[in-house]
Sequence to fold (448 residues):
Amino acid sequence: MASARSTQTTLAFAAVTTLFFAWGFITSLVDPLVAAVKGIFTLTDFQAQASAFAFFFAYFVVSLPAAVLVSRLKAVPSILAALVTMIAGCLIMLAAANIANYWLVLLGLFVLASGITILQVAANPLAAALGNPKGSHFRLVLSQTFNSFGTFLGPLLGAHLFLKGVEVKEGTVVTPEIRAQALAGIDSAYFWICGLIAALAVFFYLSRRVVTEAAPPATGPQRGFWALFTDALTSKWALLGALAIFLYVGAEVAIGTQMALFLNSDAIWGHSDAAFGVPVLGYLMGSDGIPGVSLQEAGKAVAFYWGGAMVGRFLGSGLLTVVRADRLLALFTAIAAAMCLYVFVVGGVTAGFVALSIGLFNSIMFPVIFTLTLERSTASAEATSGLLCTAIVGGAVLPLLVGLISGAHGYAFALVVPAACYVALCVFAIAAGRAPVVRAEGEGASIH
Fold:
């Protein structure tokens, strides 16, 4: 009986982990999309970052209502509702690409992210809860590893489809033919994503019984939006955790969405072929034979920023079995801050490689901040989770700030903002290590 239960839990965890892969892939497409719309619609850095704002602002609007939805419908029906919402977002993106309307692009990204928000509110605590409570950090980081595999593939596909021939440097012009080609690439990408989400919805519908039976029984009364919101605000650690998520996601997204433009700049790789001499990196970038790194080649290199997070999560899963989560978070945030400062102070070709490597140290931040906060929060798990997911709005706000700074002072200078975020996160990690634990690792961490 115990063996059957264990097998069922493993299958349920595998089904949930497929969702992590899907939303990672879709989210990372925003990076090449920011670079593409800058050229297609002739935008400033700030205006192009509105794409990231529209996507991540959905977390601010939808997260707590999503927590109410998950509390009332439970995880499986909520996940299915999320997938349907994501399909609607893809259909809007298809329309936007066909009529070349940037405002409709922003709407499509908002609707798509709304579905992903519901998915995250339901799936993050569920992944942590499916199994022995002592392994919640490990399971969530492992699921996030597959999320990172999706984010690795997204920029490769997006750069291939969105950025062919697109250049945004001063003095360059995007011809009508290149513009039409880029819009067709956006159309093609979201068409196939729509189909894949539909297939995923069918798969999860067929897996619903396995997940429902494996999940721990629901506890506590169902509560409305206001009750969840006020509950979350009563906990100092729920608020601190929300601030930490805000800063982490803001820093990660700001670096990712600017990365292609940063690498393509003349001060970094614009006039250098050094990246093509690096095994795997050079191969996947695919040199066009013209000296320097084009925007499309730089867009493909962004995959290694997210690929670093994937590798880091594999390594982090193992490290978390022997190193305390708060200590590992403090170490990784300190290193990330130092790397940002290197890019700002030193610059040049080497700064491009250092910037790409920041993803390696971003790797364990979200899942560890999430579980550290759940352990220390005196608010309920669903209220805490809803507030944490609301704080992902940092991915909307900080990229706009970084876009303003990069437009005025350059892309390397703008990394001062992420550096400050990582320093604050290091302080959070140290404080978490000294704070009392309210609930055991994984205890009460489920919303289903």
